[in-house]
Structure formats: C-alpha cells, structure tokens
Design brief:
Elements (H helix, E strand, L loop, with lengths): L1 H6 L6 H8 L3 H8 L2 H26 L4 H17 L7 H9 L5 H27 L9 H18 L5 H15 L1
C-alpha cells in the first residue's frame, strides 16, 4: 500500500515492490501473479483497513456538523503532519488512473466513493436532526458535494498550507447551514 500510495501505480516498479516487501520477484509473482493483482489487493486492504474505519466515524458519532468538520480537519492534519503525506491511495488512484482502470479497480474505487457518500449522508442527516443545519438542506446532494470536496482536499493538502486548508474547511462547513 505504501509504495503505491507514495509513487502511484504507473511509477511503481516491480523492483520497488520487491525491495519494500523484502521478497524476491519469484515470490511476488508466485503470490500475486502480477503487479496489477498486487495493486488490487493493496487498494482493497487500504479501503478496508484505512478508509472504512476513518469514515465510519461519521456514522458512529452522535455529533452533528462538528463531526463532519472534525473529519475534514483530520484529513488535512493527516497530510500536513506527514502521517499520510501523499494523501489517500484511493483518491490518488482515482486521479491517476481515471478511465484507464480495469473493471476490478473501478469496482473498488466506486465502492469507496459510495461508502464516503453514505458516511457523509448519515452525518448530515444527524446534523439536521440536531438542528445544526437547516431542514431545507438536501443532505443527499450535500453528501455528494462533500465527497468531491474531501477528495479534492486531499490533493490540495499536498500543496496548500494547513492554515489555508483549515479556512477552506470552515468555509465549506458554513455553507451547509
């Protein structure tokens, strides 16, 4: 996961993978058959072990709009602190591969985007119930907006200052009211 996250799919060589995993080429091919299969395993593992637990906080929390803001701020903090300095493997893969990806990759990336949308939707519905946002807010559409925003935020965090990003999050949250 780390090598693909740092370098991207195209720029990652078999040699990079062999060195990072501390195995030989034969073992890599014996286990995964190809770089593409290893990449698919890495994407799925990232989805299940990193992205899903992270965004489940939106579903599990009893908080309202503050939880949405907290999650967006945490995305910024992860990149700026160096914990995920190259952003999100799934978002990077969407940006890098676009329409060139195969059906298996597309399925994982679509599942990720659906999970993020559902998580934001649940949190926004809760925020509406708590009176944090107006009853007029279309939470389904705003959840879609937040999917795009959060995906872009991870890319912007590689370039913009933490202060600029935090202001952006605050402004985005303000528009939800």
């Amino acid at each position: 996961m780390v090598v693909f996250q740092d370098k991207g799919y195209e720029a990652t060589s078999i040699q990079d993978l062999v060195e990072h995993m501390e195995i030989n080429r034969f073992s890599l091919y014996q286990t995964f058959n190809s770089k593409q299969n290893l990449f698919l395993e890495a994407l799925q593992a990232y989805h299940d072990n990193v992205a899903l637990p992270f965004f489940n906080r939106l579903i599990d929390s009893k908080g309202g709009i503050s939880t949405v803001e907290s999650v967006l701020m945490e995305l910024v903090a992860r990149v700026k602190s160096g914990r995920s300095s190259n952003g999100c493997l799934l978002c990077n893969s969407i940006a890098e591969l676009g329409a060139r990806q195969d059906k298996r990759t597309t399925a994982i990336l679509e599942k990720y985007l659906e999970m993020v949308e559902k998580s934001f939707y649940v949190a926004l519905q809760r925020a509406k119930e708590l009176g944090d946002i107006s009853d007029d807010v279309d939470t389904r559409q705003q959840a879609k907006v937040l999917v795009g925003y959060s995906t872009g935020l991870l890319s912007l965090a590689k370039v913009l200052s933490e202060q600029e990003l935090r202001k952006s999050v605050k402004a985005t949250i303000a528009t939800l009211g």
